[in-house]
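Q: I'm building a small set of examples for a reading group on sequence design. Run inverse folding on the following structure and report the sequence directly after it, with nothing in between.
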């Protein structure tokens, strides 16, 4: 299962920083772009909060981002798992 919400929230600032470092020039442009990325983070965080089921127990994961064979090395079996629990 892969919803993508949490992964986007985690990696959007990194993507924004890379774009700023490589393409955005000028202090004013950097500030505007960073502000847009921050606003996008806020909107995504509010959307995740709105989707969160407060009635679900702490033993249940919500908004799961899971990739079974994230790094497909036979001896390691590395998985990507990101979710919200009720704690």
């Amino acid at each position: 299962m892969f919803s993508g919400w949490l992964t986007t929230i985690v990696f959007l600032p990194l993507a924004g920083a890379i774009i700023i470092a490589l393409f955005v020039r000028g202090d004013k442009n950097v500030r505007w772009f960073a502000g847009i990325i921050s606003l996008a983070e806020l909107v995504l965080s509010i959307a995740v909060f709105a989707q969160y089921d407060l009635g679900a127990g702490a033993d249940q994961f919500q908004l799961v981002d899971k990739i079974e064979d994230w790094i497909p090395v036979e001896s390691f079996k590395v998985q990507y798992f990101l979710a919200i629990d009720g704690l």
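The mean pLDDT is 88.
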